Structure to design on (523 residues):
């Protein structure tokens, strides 16, 4: 069977064709632009990107953003899972926390930037706090929904086997909720990528958000395009790595496990 | 000898809810297979849930071996109608091991006991499969194995074969009859199927139509084992139970008609 005949190979060809068409269209439109400076071509964007990479600046900005995302995402996920489990397991905790959660989750991290800068300065901790903030509610709500949806008969069966509350919690509730936690974390990761740009735009001297913002000062639109492209690519890779890693490590906890993945 | 007693059981879901069960009295003997039949909605599953300790009666009490039932205990294991009580993240073997894990039994011991229970229900060779890879009948066998592994003296079976196809149901009925005879458990089995009741039961309890249902009649099934489904005696008993039950079903239908 040739690569084109395999479903995976066909999909890859489809993706490649789509990318080539969009790049071609982009190149064509930029060549027709009245002011090329405002709409750089993919080739000039690539040239600027390679120049920046040669100086090591691109890697530094990439790493700065990635580190902030990972730190904020990890902190927010840990807090979100803990809160969600507690809220799902205890109605008293839910009553205490739910009103604040429903209020805060509609406030974007952007709205908190001035206050967080005043409280924490413009250092790393402020940006990581904003990223954790944007993660925590999505993860907590999904986790809480998962805890509430543990099939009643799974809990009843465990009770009839003589399981104590602690055993039911760790042996039934938590494993049954893992899928919901992962969905919440995956959604939250998208939020992190949006928030990191906002945080770096306002209060940073490094990172992809800063790179995008600084392009305005030097009228180098290519810089903005390099930053935007890399951010999107980084998001795509992060999502893929998250999905692959979680399904490799936690495949048992998917809703209908099909067996250990072989790759 | 009486092993389980329901004494004057009333049940309602809340103080202002209608009475579901009124004055239920029932005694089960040690080692018998008691089938409970009745019209839909008459509260058969509620009776089972009360004995399991999942529901608390509004009045009356349930005694097991002279002890009042206070919540679930590992001497009474439930086999649910839907196999959603199996843990999808565990294999068939790990599901059967689960009650022993809760008890703190050593890994090697619990593995050996779980393998033996799976062998008893004919699932050797499927130990490593997850529930999503098992058929409906196989999932119910895993539930039965999980109940057997604890050596619980009482099995509570809530229409365990109700969602299976006819062929699988007959096979599992045959297997259950053998297991019940071999292991001498006391079994309370809820069913809608009179054939199933006669094939398996030592006695059949017929409940009245709800609400405020109670036990209408107990029929002794004195057919020799192993039983043959097509025998004349089987047919006569079927007609007898059917007649008792159909009066109650007609009551339900009349009430539903009057509501239309």
């Amino acid at each position: 069977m040739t690569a084109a005949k395999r479903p995976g190979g066909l999909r890859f060809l489809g993706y490649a064709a789509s990318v080539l068409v969009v790049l071609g269209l982009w190149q064509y439109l930029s060549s027709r632009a009245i002011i090329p400076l405002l709409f750089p071509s993919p080739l000039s964007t690539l040239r600027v990107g390679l120049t920046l990479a040669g100086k090591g600046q691109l890697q530094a900005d990439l790493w700065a953003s990635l580190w902030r995302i990972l730190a904020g995402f990890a902190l927010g996920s840990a807090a979100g899972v803990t809160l969600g489990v507690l809220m799902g397991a205890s109605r008293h905790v839910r009553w205490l926390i739910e009103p604040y959660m429903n209020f805060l989750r509609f406030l974007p991290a952007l709205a908190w930037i001035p206050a967080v800068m005043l409280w924490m300065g413009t250092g790393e901790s402020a940006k990581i706090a904003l990223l954790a903030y944007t993660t925590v509610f999505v993860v907590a709500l999904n986790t809480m929904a998962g805890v509430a949806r543990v099939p009643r008969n799974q809990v009843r069966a465990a009770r009839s086997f003589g399981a104590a509350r602690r055993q039911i919690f760790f042996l039934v509730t938590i494993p049954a909720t893992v899928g919901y936690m992962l969905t919440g974390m995956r959604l939250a990761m998208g939020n992190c990528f949006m928030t990191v740009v906002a945080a770096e735009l306002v209060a940073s001297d490094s990172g992809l958000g800063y790179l995008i913002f600084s392009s305005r000062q030097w009228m180098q639109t290519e810089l903005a395009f390099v930053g935007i492209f890399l951010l999107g690519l980084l998001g795509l890779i992060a999502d893929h790595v998250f999905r692959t890693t979680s399904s490799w490590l936690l495949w048992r906890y998917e809703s209908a496990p099909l067996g250990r993945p072989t790759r | 000898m009486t092993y389980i007693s329901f004494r004057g059981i009333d049940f309602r879901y809340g103080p202002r809810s209608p009475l579901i069960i009124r004055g239920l009295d029932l005694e089960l003997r040690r080692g018998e297979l008691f089938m409970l039949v009745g019209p839909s909605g008459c509260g058969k599953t509620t009776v089972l849930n009360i004995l399991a300790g999942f529901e608390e009666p509004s009045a009356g009490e349930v005694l097991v071996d002279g002890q009042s039932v206070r919540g679930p205990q590992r001497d009474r294991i439930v086999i649910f109608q839907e196999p959603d009580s199996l843990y999808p993240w565990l294999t068939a073997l790990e599901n059967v091991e689960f009650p022993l894990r809760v008890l703190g039994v050593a890994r090697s011991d619990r593995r050996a006991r779980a393998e033996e229970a799976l062998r008893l229900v004919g699932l050797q060779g499927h130990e490593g499969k997850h529930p999503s890879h098992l058929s409906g009948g196989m999932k119910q066998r895993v539930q039965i194995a999980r109940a057997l592994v604890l050596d619980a003296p009482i099995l509570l079976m809530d229409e365990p074969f109700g969602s299976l196809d006819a062929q699988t149901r007959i096979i599992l009925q045959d297997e259950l009859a053998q297991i019940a005879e071999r292991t001498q458990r006391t079994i309370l089995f809820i069913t809608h199927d009179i054939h199933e009741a006669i094939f398996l039961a030592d006695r059949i309890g017929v409940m009245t139509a709800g609400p405020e249902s109670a036990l209408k009649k107990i029929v002794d099934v004195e057919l020799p084992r192993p039983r043959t489904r097509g025998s004349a005696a089987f047919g006569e008993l079927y007609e007898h139970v059917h007649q008792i039950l159909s009066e109650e079903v007609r009551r339900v239908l009349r009430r539903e008609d009057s509501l239309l």
Summary: The CA atoms of residues 81 and 162 of chain B lie 7 Å apart.
